[in-house]
Amino acid sequence: MRLLPQPATENIQLTEVLRALSDPVRLEIAARLAVAGRMSCTVAGESLGVHKSTASHHFRTLREAGVISTERDGRQKVMSLRWDDLEARFPGLLPAILTAASLETRAAASADSGPREPANSANSADSGPREPADSGPREPAASAQSGLREPAASR
């Protein structure tokens, strides 16, 4: 197996790691790798819901930031998180980010799954259009019904 280019441990920059993990798709890739350990780019890319070229861009961004390591095994590329390198460089960073992402995902899923109360449940039966609370001066009923507008100077 041949390792694709990646920064040495001492060259991994915090800003690049955070930038790479700031994208939701790349964060999802990192989370999946944290669970799976190793994963081929093909398998990871198929379940992301993005085009192959977009997935490839995300893999490259993570690799160049030092978040993942990619090895070529024949025609496949296999990715894994650089746990030890990131832990040596920034202790606790990756587990903290992945835990926060997991909590955020669970919170969003639980918010989407349950029925929600309308914002103003007292008026929820009224399905007609609502007037703003302070609608200001109104046009005379005749011109409003006829669709004609008064000239700007006379308003």
CATH architecture assignment of the domain at 2-108: Orthogonal Bundle
Q: Quickly count the helices.
A: 7
SSE pattern, N- to C-terminal: EHHEHHEEHHH
Structural class: alpha+beta
> Could you please say which CATH topology of the domain at 2-108 applies here?
Arc Repressor Mutant, subunit A
How is the biggest beta sheet arranged?
4 strands, antiparallel
Shape: globular
Radius of gyration from CA coordinates: 27 Å
Q: Count the E strands.
A: 4
Instruction: Determine the fraction of residues in helical runs and give it as a percent range.
Output: 40-55%
* Strand line-up across the major sheet: 1-3-4-2
- Distance from first to last alpha carbon: 79 Å
Overall pLDDT metric: 77
Q: Unreliable runs, pLDDT <50, ≥5 residues?
A: 121-133, 138-150
Assess the beta-strand content as a share of residues: 5-15%
CATH superfamily of the domain at 2-108: Winged helix-like DNA-binding domain superfamily/Winged helix DNA-binding domain
> What is the highest CATH level, the class of the domain at 2-108?
Mainly Alpha
